[in-house]
Structures
1.
Amino acid sequence: MVKAPRDARRRKACVIGAGPNGLSAAIVLAQAGMRVDVFEAEAQPGGAARTMELTLPGFHHDFGSAVHPMAAGSPFFRSLPLADYGLEWVHSPAPLAHPFDDGAAIALERNLDDAQTALGEDGRAWRNLMAPLSDHWPEFAQDILRPLFRIPSHPFLLAKFAQDALAPATFVARRRFRDERTRALFAGLAAHSFLGLGQPLSASFGLVLGAAAHAVGWPVPRGGAQAITDALSAHLARLGGNIVAATRIASFDQLPNCDITMCDITPRQLLRLSQGKLSSQYRRRLEKFRYGPGIFKVDYALSSPVPWKAAECLRAATVHLGGSMAEIAASEAAMAGGKPAERPFVLLSQPTLFDPSRAPAGKHIAWAYCHVPNGSTFNMLERVEAQIERFAPGFRDCILARRTWSPAELEAMDANLVGGDIGGGAVDFRQFFFRPTWRHYATSDKNIYLCSSSTPPGGGVHGMCGHNAAKLALRRLRQ
C-alpha cells in the first residue's frame, strides 16, 4: 500500500465521473485520509454500470455490461468489503454457451476438469492453454491489470501468457485446436476485443476471459450492475467521501480548490474542459487518441425464457451467437472495415434465468448487442434478431417490449461511450502500448490525472484504472 502523505487529512481531492473507475479512485484517496468529492453528470451514478427500467415497469435492465468476470476477479474489488453493502455474485451453472446450426451447443464449464471432458479431443489443449492462468488467477490478474511498463511480479507467468496473447486469435485457435467448434468457442471469447480476429493482440482477450471463466466465473450481480456501483458508493461514504450527482463539470474552474483532480472521462472530454490547464504538447497527444468500434444494443422484456434449440444454452448467463470461427471472423472484419456485418456476432445475456428478482414473476429480460463501426447510424435490429432466431426459433413471439440503442443514443446516456465505444478507445497494437496516457495516468498538469478506461489496463468493470491512477497521485503527493 502507498504510504499516505502525513498531512493527507488536510488534503482535498475531486473526482470527475462516478463510474467504476472514478469511484475506485475516490476510495483509494479516501483510504489515504483525503477529503473526496465525486462529481457525476448523470442523476444516477455508475456510468455504464447502471440498472434501470428501460422497457416496461418491473423489468430491470443493465444499461451497460451485464456479466462481470473482471469485476469478480478484480484485485482491487476483491480487497474491499463490497459484500457488506449487499453485492452478491450469482453464477450460472456454465459461464458461457455457444450454439451451432445443428441444434447442439458447447457449454464452457467453470470447472476445468469438466471443461476438459466436454471439449473432447481438444480438452487437453484447452487445459494446457488456460490452466497456467486460471490456476494462478490472483497473481495473473495483478500483473495484467497493473500499469504498463512495470517489471511484472510474476515474469514467468506473464511470459507464458505472452506466448499466445500477442498473436491473432485465428492463428492461436488453428494452432491449438482441431475441432471447429472449439475454435469457434475461442473466437467468440476473442471477439470481445473489438479487433479483427486476424489482428495481433486479439488472442489476449480470449485467454483472459477463458481463464477468468475457470478462475472466478462469469457471474451477474444480484439485482443488476447497479449493485456494484451502490456497493462502491456505500463504501466511499463510510470512508467520508461524497458523491454530487446531476452535476456536469464543463471546466476545471467549476471545481472547489483541491490538491488532486482525478478524471474518469475520455481524452475528448478532458480536452474540452482543460481550458489552458494542459500543455500544447500534451493536448496534441490527446487529440491523436483513437476511439474503437461501437455497439448496437437491444434490451428485451420477455414473456418467457429465450426458446433455445440447444438446452445447454439455458445453463449459461451469456450466450455467443455467431456460428463458426469463420463467420465470427467475417463479422468482426466487416466491422473493422467500417461496414455493418450481414450476420453479426451477437453477445446475449439472460440474467433472469438465475436472478428472477429483476423481472415480474414468470417474466424475463434479455440483453443483446453486436459490434458496429464507431458512430454507425445503421439500424442493426433486424440482423440481431435474425441471429437470435437462428438459434432460438420463436424468439420474437416472446418479446413484450424492446428498446434499441444506437451508438449516438448510448453516448447521450454516458458521454464516455464516444461513438458507442464501450472499451474506452481502440485497443490495436499501437494504441494499446502507446496511448497518450501511457505515462502512468499523469497529465501535463501535476495535479490532474486521467483514470478512465482510456488508460491502462483499459475497458471492463474492474476499477483498476482508477485504482492505479490514484496510487500514482498519492505517491507524487507524498514526494
2.
Amino acid sequence: MPRKAAVIGSGPNGLAAAIELARAGWEVTVYESRDTPGGGARTAELTLPGFRHDICSAIHPLAVSSPAFASYGLKEAGLEWLDPELPLAHPFDDGTAAVLARPLAATADALGPDGSAWRELMAPFVREWDQMAADLLGPPLRLPANPSLLVRLALPALQPALSLANRKFHSPQTRALFGGIAAHSMLPLDQRPSAVFGLVLAIAGHARGWPLPRGGSQAITEALIVRLHHAGGEIVTGREIRSLDELPESTAVLFDLTPRQIVRIAGASLPSGYLRRLQKYRYGMGVFKIDWALSEPVPWRAEACRRAGTVHVGGSLEEIAEAERAAWRGYLTPRPFLILAQQSLFDPSRAPAGRHTLWGYCHMRHHSEASMVSAMEHQIERFAPGFRSTILARHTMNAAQMEEYNPNYVGGDINGGVQDLRQLLARPAFSLDPYAMPAEGLYICSAATPPGGGVHGLGGHYAAQSVLRKYGRE
C-alpha cells in the first residue's frame, strides 16, 4: 500500500511538497480552506469586469530561478512567462529614471560613473546564477556546491543595504536603484542583512529577468495543479483543518502554514520547548495593497517607466530608508515607498482592450487598519502627473484585511515572518532539518522555512525531501 500524506494549504510551497511526494508514489491529499487553491498565487477580477488583478504575488524572479519549478515541466502544463522590456525602472523628480535592464552591460552603461562598480558587484554571480540559485535558495546548513562564490557574495550581502549603497556607489540615482530593490526585504535599510535581498534580486534580474505569467499568477497555481493531478495527487477545497483529528490517518502531515496556525492545529502534539520557540516566532511589517483599473497606461514622466514591468516609487535612497524605517517602527508616512507592477502593458489578457491595470503596495505597521490610498496615489502622481484622472476603480486591502484574506499573512506580513539574520538561520527554529518538527510525521513547508518568502516552491520541495529521507518512496 502506498504511504499517505496530508498537506494543509495549497500555496506554491504546499503544492510543490504534494507534487514531490506524489511523484515518489505517495497517496497525497491537499486541503485548502478557501474555495480556490493558490495561497499567494491567485488572480481575480477585484475592480471591474474584465480587469484581472494578482491578489498577492505578481512578478516572479525567484519562480523562474527555482530548481523545483524547473523540474516540474510547468511550461508543458500551460505556464507561459512574459518578460517586460525592462524588468525595473525607478523614477526621479527631474523626469529621469534609473533602470535594471536584463543585460548587465546595458544597466552598467546607463549608470555612468557607477557602471563599473555595478558590474564588479554583479558580474561574477550573474555568470554562475543557476548554481548560485540552488545554493542560495537551499537549506542553510547544506554544503553548497560552490562555497567560495557564496563567501564572496556574503562579504557585501551581510550588511545593511544603506551602508553598501553609500559605500559602493557615488550617484544618488544608483544608490536609490539599489535601495529600492533591497526594500523588498521588508527590513529597515540600516539593518542587516537587507543588502542580500538587493543583491539577489538584482542578480536574478540580470540572469533570468523579472517575468510575469500570462493570465496572472493564478496560472502558476493552475500549472502546479496539472502536475499534481498527473502524479496522482488530489486537492480538497473549502475545507479548513482546525485539528489533526480532522485528517485521515497519514504517515506525514505537511503544513503550508506559518507557526501561529501550526500551534493552533498541532500544538498539543509538539514538545513544550519547540512549541515555545514557535510561539516566539516573529512577524514583520504589514502591507497596504491597491489594485487599480485604469483608462490608459500610467502617464509617467520618465519614458523608461512606460517600458518596465516593475516600477519602484520612492525617490532617493534617503527617502526610501526613512519610509521603511517609519513602517518598521509603526508610523504612517506621507511618502511611502511603493512597489508597482504594470502587467497589462505586456499581457493584454489582464484588462479590456485599451484599458490597463496597476498593482501596488507599500509597507505599513503590523495589523494596521489605516488607509494609505491618498499617500500612495500622491506618490505616483509625483512622478506621473495626471495619474488620478486615469483611475476607473480601485480595490484596497490594509494589513489587517490581508491577514483576513490569508491567515498566513499574520498582521499583513506577506513574507511569512521577519527575514533578519536570526530568522534566516533559524526559520522557524534552529535545526539541522528545519522542515521536520520534533513530533512523528509532522513537517513545515511554508515561507516560514528556508529559503523564506517568494513564489518558488522550495520550502515544499525541501520539506518533501525530508519526508522521503525518513520514510522512503512507495
3.
Amino acid sequence: MTGAPRPGPPLAVCADVGSTYTKVAVVDVTDGALLATAAHPTTVTGDVMHGLDAAVGAVAERLPGHDLSNLYVCSSAGGGLRLAVVGYEPLVSAEAAHRVATSAGARVVHVAAGRLDAGGVAALRAAKPDVLLLVGGTDGGDADTVRHNGARLAAARLRVPVVVAGNADARDDVAGVLAARGVPVVATDNVLPRIGVLAPGPARAAIRDVFLRHVIGGKRLSRDPRFVRLVRGATPDVVLTAVELLADTASGDFAVVDVGGATTDVYSVVVPDAERAGGPAREVAGVLWRSRTVEGDLGVRWSAPGVVAAARAEKLVGDAEAESLAVAADARAADPDLLADDGAVDLRLAELAAVVALRRHARGEAVGGATAARRGGKDLGAVRLLIGSGGVLRHAPPPRSAAVLTAVLADHAGGWRLPKAAIPRVDQAYVLAAVGLLAGDFPDAAIALAQRELYGQ
C-alpha cells in the first residue's frame, strides 16, 4: 500500500491465529458488514506474525487504500491453553472447576482432587499445563486441603501460573505462599462459594488474564512484540463470548459445534428453567448454563482414529464402514495436511464427530461407570439455532455441510433431548471469532454481522 489511507468506514480486522490456519475478516464496525476475508497457513514453526501479516496483506489487496491497522486477534496456536485443575474432591469443587475451565477456553489436561502428594505433583508436572486452577472448599467450609495444596505447589516449583479460586477464608494466605516462592499467582472469587452455586465469571476472567500475560508470550510463538499486544484472548473463549452475545440477543437457547482437526468443541447457552434449577435434583456442583465441552479424541485429522472408535462405541457405524473409515482415519492422523479428493470421508468423519460430541455434551458424564447416574450435561430441547463451524464444513458445498447438522438434529438414539425446532446454519465465512472479538467494543456491529452471516437476515 502506498500513500495515506483514504477516508472510509471505520474497519476492524479480526484475526484468529489457529494451529493450522490464520483466518482474517474485515468488518465495517458502523453496520457490521463483512467486507473481505482471507486465510493463510499459520507459520507456527517460525514466527506466527509472518502468517498473520500475510493474511492481513491478502485482504489489503482487496481493499486498497483502507486503514487496516485496527486489529483484533485471538489465538489457539501452539496447542491453545492447557489447564490443570486441583480441587478438594471430584464430585464437588474439582468438577465445578473443570466446568469453569472449559468455559474459559481452556483444554483441561489434568484434574487432581484431594491432598496432593509426591505422585500427584509428578502427574501435574507430566501434564505440562500452561495454567493451574487451584480450588477447594466452599466459603466458610474446609480450608485445610486448599492450604495444603497451595503449599505443595509452592514447594514443587512447577513454574506454572496459578489461579486461586477456592475458599475465601484461605485464598489470600494461599496466594501469599505461592507468591513468596516466585510463582505467578492471581487470586479471585471462589468458583463454588456454596453448595449448588457455581460462579464461573471471576475465575474465567482470571484465566483469560493469565493467558494473555503469561501464556501467549511464554509459548514463544513470535519474537515480534506486536503479537503479545494484539492477542485479546484464547479462540475458544472468544467464540464462547460470541455465543453468549447471540443467545442474549436471540432470547433463546443456542448451540455451536466446531469440528476441528484435533478436537470437536460444543458450546451452548441454555436459559435456566426455574423449576428444574431449584428442584431437589439440583447438582451439588451447580449448573453452568453457558458452557463449552472439548472432545480431545474427536477430530478430522490428528484425532480421526478417535472418531471411528467413538462412533463404534456409540453404535453409529457398522463393522464394514468402521473398517473402511479406520484406514482413512489412520492416513489422516499420519498426514494432517492430507487433501482429500472429494471430501466425502472428511464429511462423514465430521458428521460422526459432531453427533458424538453433542451426545456427550448433552448427556453429561457417567459417575462410577457407564450405567451409573450422570452429572453435568445440558437439556438442549429448546435450542433454536444450531451452528456448525470448522474448516471441513466451511470448505464443503453448502448442501453437504448442512447435512452434517441435519444428522445431529436427527439423532434420536443418542440418549439426549433433541432440539424441537432448531434452525441449522453453517458458519461459511467464519465470523464467530470476529463476533466474539467485536462484542466488547462494538456489540451492535457484532450482532449485525452475526445476523447477516449466521441468521440469513
4.
Amino acid sequence: MDQEKIGKFIKQIRQDHHLTQKDLAEKLGVTYQAVSKWENGKNIPDIAILQIISKEFNVNIDEILEGKRKKEKIVSFNYLLIILLIILGISIIISINIYVRKNNNFEFKTISSKCSDFKITGSAAYNKQQTAIYISNIEFCGKEDHTNYKRITCTLYENYQNTKTKISSCPEKKNKTLESFLKETKINVENYSSNCKKLTSNTLSLEIKAINEETKTITYTIPIKLNDTCK
C-alpha cells in the first residue's frame, strides 16, 4: 500500500471537485491537518473515512488504495454474438452476482471505547467470511500525566466465553509520555478470524502497560464496543 500514491489520488479528487483542504475536511468531518497529512503521504484515512470518500465522490475504495482509476475496458462484439453469449451465460452471471453480494460485500461499523478515561476511534469491516479491525485514534482523557515512561506497550485482546485471546499488539516505545505514545499508535487487524456477530457478543479490550523509571508498571484496560448491530 503506497501512502504517497493514495495521497496524490485524494488530492486529485479534491481538486477535480474544486475543493480546498478545509472544504474537504468539513465534508468528511476531520481536520484540514488530517487532509494535509493524507495528501503528503504521511498518513491514510481509516476505513470509515474511505467509505465516505467512496460514496461522496463515486470512486471505489480499491481505486483509492491503489492510487489510480481503473481503466474501463471497451470491447466490441457482433450483435448476434452478444445475444448468444447473454443466453448461454445468464445463469453463470446470476450465480456470480449472488455469490459476490453474499460473500464479498463488506459492511462497516464504527468501534469506540467504553471507558471515560480513553477515547477510541476506529472501524470494523466484515462480510460472511472475515472481519477486519482498524483503530485509528486513541486519546487519553483522564488525569494529566506528563511522566516520561521507560517503556510502553499495548495489546488488543478478545474476551470470549471466559477465554482471553491476544489479537494484535503495537510496537513497544521507549522514553515516551502516554500522550505521545497514543498519538503514534494505530492498530490494523486485516484477517481477524472472528465474524461480526461473534464480535458483538464478546468483549474486545485494549491493554496498555507503561513502566516508569522505578520499574513500576501501570496497566490500563480499555473495553471496546461495536456501535450498532450486524446484519
